[in-house]
Amino acid sequence: MTPPFSLAGLLRLRGVQERAAAERLSRAAVTARQSEAREHRTRTALADSADAAVDVRSLAAIAASRAAARARIGELALIADAQRDDVDAARRAHTEAKRRALGLEKLEAAHRERERRGELRAEQSALDEIATGRWAIASARQEGAA
Fold first, then answer.
1. What is the rounded distance in angstroms from the CA atom of residue 117 to the CA atom of residue 121?
2. pTM of the predicted model, to two decimals?
3. Mean per-residue pLDDT, 50-67
4. Which of these, 117, 106, 113, lies nearest to 7 by C-alpha position?
């Protein structure tokens, strides 16, 4: 029986951390896409609005509406920028978690390979011992028969 990989618990923890980081990255990406879509819809709505001013009051209302819409677009752009920064930070965290898990996975693979080679070596030694024993028995029989 081969001894277990001594860092198996840490490897499982790193796997959990990597999956959590991937989940955070996914959520951040979805939120960023939603913000960009909201900004795009607001820009499209502002561009598509057909404003026909018939008097000074309606012209002032249109101007106020456009100013408010521009302010809203500015806010949405800031939110989208912040969320893109969040995505970048989540991507870096995921990459780091992945790197840390990969190092342990490589150690585990090397451990398994060493154990496999040790088992094969022991098996080969046993086979050699059996073959040597049979050869000695056969030699003794030949000497006894002669």
1. 6
2. 0.67
3. 81
4. 106
